[in-house]
Design goal:
Blueprint (H helix, E strand, L loop, with lengths): L12 H21 L1 H13 L4 E2 L5 E2 L5 E3 L1 H35 L5
Antiparallel strand pairs: 1-3, 2-3
């Protein structure tokens, strides 16, 4: 798909999927680059009990006097496993879809 106005290629489904899966990992880095955002975000996360204080944390986040305790660490690991499984499933489905299209078009490799 080409963008007729600028002549640049539009994002395809794989590009969008990669951006969606990379966003949660890139967001902390963006917050760390802007100190006032980092302090505001850390305060908000502490107030809403998403993070715990550094004294109660098993894993302290660098640059922030807060971290995650055991329960939150298990939740983070579970979310990471779900994201990885979902992305692998999406990649596998896309591969099989492409293989099926090739077979339908007469490519018998």
């Amino acid at each position: 798909m080409n963008n007729t106005q600028s002549g640049q290629k539009a994002l395809n489904d794989n590009d969008l999927l990669a951006l969606i899966f990379l966003f949660p990992f890139l967001l902390p880095f963006a917050l760390a680059l802007v100190p006032q955002w980092r302090d505001t975000a850390a305060t908000w996360l502490l107030d809403h009990q998403v993070l715990v204080t550094a004294a109660d944390a098993l894993w302290v986040l660098p640059g922030i006097d807060a971290g995650v305790d055991g329960r939150r660490l298990i939740i983070l690991i579970a979310v990471a496993v779900i994201l990885i499984a979902g992305s692998l499933t999406a990649v596998r489905a896309a591969y099989h879809r492409r293989a099926f299209r090739r077979l339908q078009s007469g490519d018998r490799q």
